[in-house]
Write a structure and sequence with these properties.
Length: 194
């Protein structure tokens, strides 16, 4: 079975998921999108209201910022694989629970297995904590996670490159220069020959 067929089947499974109570409050379970043959996988936290309405990742205000950061980095959305840690919108934009992360974990593990990225880019705290735990990278105290953004970590052959989520710019526009600089590295990960 091909890469594309595998991801297509998994995405069908994601869209029909009823494993947890979020199935009752969402409009859509948002599956991954982009290039399933990419070396680069970006892992966001969860869909927001706009994404839930449009059944697509990174729409609305954070989507606009995301597109600007990618454009600045010279990276086309279609060249990367995008997915979420949690596939359904979290009511009132709350944090994901351990149980919800645990329920969605199967999907993330399968996506990584199928896509086989060389670099995983977790966006924000929850995605970074999840990936560090999955790849057994020592995790700092919660108040020091911001020091991880824009740094390269290795787990065997896998490169882990945590970044701030684009939403951070909505609350702190002063981070723009630093975030643009960090997002520019994405282009290098795409062209690296392993």
């Amino acid at each position: 079975m091909s890469h594309f067929q595998d991801i297509h089947d998994l995405n069908k499974e994601i869209r029909a998921c009823t494993k947890c109570k979020l199935a009752h409050t969402r409009t859509f379970a948002i599956s991954g999108e982009g290039n399933p043959g990419s070396k680069l996988m970006l892992l966001a936290q969860s869909p927001g209201k706009s994404e839930d309405e449009q059944n697509k990742m990174f729409t609305g205000p954070s989507g606009k910022l995301f597109d600007e950061l990618l454009e600045q980095a010279g990276v086309a959305r279609e060249s990367i694989y995008l997915t979420n840690l949690i596939k359904c919108m979290l009511p009132n934009s709350r944090r994901p629970s351990r149980e919800e992360i645990s329920q969605c974990r199967y999907y993330i593990d399968k996506e990584i297995e199928i896509v086989k990225p060389k670099t995983i880019v977790p966006l924000g705290f929850h995605s970074t904590r999840f990936i560090f735990s999955k790849y057994q990278i020592p995790r700092p105290p919660k108040n020091e996670y911001h020091k991880l953004f824009g740094r390269v970590f290795y787990s065997g052959e896998m490169i882990i490159y945590p970044l701030r989520h684009p939403t951070a710019l909505l609350f702190n526009p002063g981070k723009r220069e630093e975030m643009e600089r960090n997002y520019r590295m994405l282009n290098r990960f795409l062209i690296l020959d392993f």
